[in-house]
Specification:
mainly alpha, 366 residues, 13 helices
Length: 366
């Protein structure tokens, strides 16, 4: 799926150019789309006209997983393998810790951060493979995903009945009924491959024919499966982990990501959608704040009342846009420029990679 293959030693980063800025902006825009889709999936009180808002249930976690793969692939190009591994380990640890803490908050949602943390480590390993290897890993993960869910049902039931919540939390990192790691890995591999296609290493935008093929192919798969579902020829249900559903959500996420990269080429559109991209740049901060808000809603503000309300959908969206805009106006230095929690993680990454770099550069003892 790509015109270039990965090598064991990634190309070092070059000074930022206009294409680099545009492509990073496109990735952040896709993250912003994932955030808004998440708000709809978590708190929309209705499915909307024609059930269109139900699409958020099929887009949110696959797009987050694809963006993990895309981010890891871009990171692999900037640093050597062990520095990249240290950075990935720190980011994974941060997501696992945040996911574990947020699961205790009491919000009526399933937290995706911990599964994405494990996915970060898996994508780091996969990103070192050539494209055909990445494709094989993704295909294998997609094929075994339905089996893994069926095979684990009895274990999940036993752990739940025994109230072994700690073991259940760790077990569900692999085979959660909502976020199976095999499905996440499938979409993460798709993110790696699509990034290699649409974000070339030389920093130039991908050719329009290549971009058109990716958008056209993903759109065709999406529409074909949607038509089969609507005519009753196949069943596609969110979080059911069937092969048609896996293909549907992967095509959906790939198409949205590719469109965001195309939008990044248009300067006028970038100016209009800049606040959404800024939201995407501080995804971790916004995610944590939204979980805190929803936990307060059901435990303090409106005890026992569902958080499904348009006031939450609209309010969280507006609040995220305002917060991201205000943070940008502060002009915080790196690594705090993206967001407060992003700054904490970024600082930890800097320390970890510096330690690895210094250790590998140290002379061998005689």
């Amino acid at each position: 799926m790509t015109s270039t293959t990965s090598t064991s030693r990634p190309v070092r980063a070059t000074p930022t150019t206009a294409p680099d800025v545009a492509r990073e902006w496109g990735v952040d825009l896709a993250r912003g789309v994932a955030i808004i889709s998440m708000f709809v999936a978590h708190t929309a009180p209705t499915a909307g006209p024609g059930g269109v808002l139900m699409l958020s249930e099929y887009l949110t976690f696959p797009l987050f997983a694809l963006l993990v793969g895309a981010g890891v692939e871009l990171g692999a190009r900037r640093t050597r393998v062990w520095e990249h591994g240290a950075a990935s380990l720190v980011r994974a640890a941060a997501l696992l810790l945040a996911g574990w803490l947020l699961a205790k908050a009491g919000a009526w949602i399933v937290i995706v951060l911990a599964p994405l943390g494990l996915l970060t480590l898996l994508c780091w390993a996969v990103s070192r493979l050539p494209s055909w290897g990445v494709a094989l890993v993704g295909l294998g993960a997609g094929l075994v995903a339905p089996w893994s869910i069926e095979a684990s049902r009895s274990t999940v039931s036993e752990l739940a009945l025994a109230q072994e919540t700690g073991r259940l939390w760790w077990f569900e990192l692999l085979v959660s009924a909502y976020y199976p790691q095999a499905v996440l890995l499938l979409v993460g591999c798709a993110g790696i491959l699509v990034t290699r296609l649409l974000v070339p290493r030389d920093g130039r935008p991908a050719s329009w024919p290549t971009t058109g093929v990716v958008i056209g192919a993903s759109g065709a798969v999406f529409l074909a499966l949607a038509a089969l579902h609507l005519t009753g020829r196949t069943e596609i249900v969110a979080y059911r982990t069937t092969w048609p559903e896996e293909l549907f959500v992967t095509a959906f996420a790939v198409g949205v990501f590719a469109v965001c990269l195309v939008v990044a080429r248009a300067r006028l559109v970038r100016q209009v959608l800049a606040p959404l991209a800024w939201v995407g740049a501080m995804t971790l901060t916004v995610y944590v704040l939204h979980v805190g808000w929803l936990a307060w809603w059901v435990r303090g503000l409106h005890p026992g009342v569902s958080d499904d309300a348009w006031s939450n959908v609209i309010g969280m969206s507006v609040a995220a846009l305002l917060l991201a805009t205000l943070w940008r106006l502060l002009r915080a230095p790196r690594p705090w420029s993206r967001g407060p929690l992003e700054g904490v993680v970024g600082l930890a990454v800097q320390l970890a990679t510096a330690g690895v770099r210094d250790r590998r550069a140290a002379p061998e003892p005689e």
